[in-house]
Write a structure and sequence with these properties.
four-stranded antiparallel sheet; 6 strands; 2 domains; Transcriptional Co-activator pc4, Chain A; alpha+beta
Length: about 160
């Protein structure tokens, strides 16, 4: 899928100032292009919105990186927010990792935060010979599964 960002073709895109529940927003029409199996491209009109508070926050964030922020930096900050729904952490910041990698990193951090296993006390799960972690009756793997509600991808 390709998202044609606002400003690519200003002749066809319209920007209007509106408000939702009294809060001003800027919105524009953009086009989502999807290749179909027969090689043709299908498009859908979408409405992208940013409230004025978010626009000010993006500008302020860019201003903390460079004062005053250049037009290139402002464009970079808005594009970063548009792509990742996050504020630009640094000038020329690399792309965020894909969601599955970010989730695995978060899971690894949590798993490691559980600390070492005490081998003198056995895990209460049937058939498990691992030791328990501090303040739990389960080993790291089973405690992870209990808290996260999904299988533990780690076994070290």
């Amino acid at each position: 899928m390709i998202l044609c960002f606002v400003g690519v073709d200003l002749g066809r895109k319209k920007r209007r100032r509106r408000s939702i529940h009294g809060f001003p927003i800027w919105y524009c029409r953009s086009t989502l292009l999807r290749p179909e199996a027969n090689g043709r491209i299908r498009s859908n009109d979408l409405i992208c919105t940013l409230d004025s508070g978010t626009i000010e926050d993006i500008y302020s964030g860019a201003g903390r990186l460079q004062n005053p922020p250049s037009d290139d930096l402002l464009l970079q900050a808005f594009m970063y927010y548009f792509r990742f729904d996050a504020f630009l952490p640094q000038i020329d910041a690399p792309d965020l990792p894909p969601a599955h990698i970010a989730i695995r990193n978060i899971d690894r951090t949590f798993y490691e935060s559980l600390g070492p296993e005490n081998l003198s006390k056995k895990c209460k799960r049937d058939g498990c010979n691992r030791g328990t972690i501090s303040l739990s009756v389960l080993c790291r793997v089973h405690h992870f599964e209990s808290v996260k509600g999904k299988p533990c991808p780690f076994d070290d």
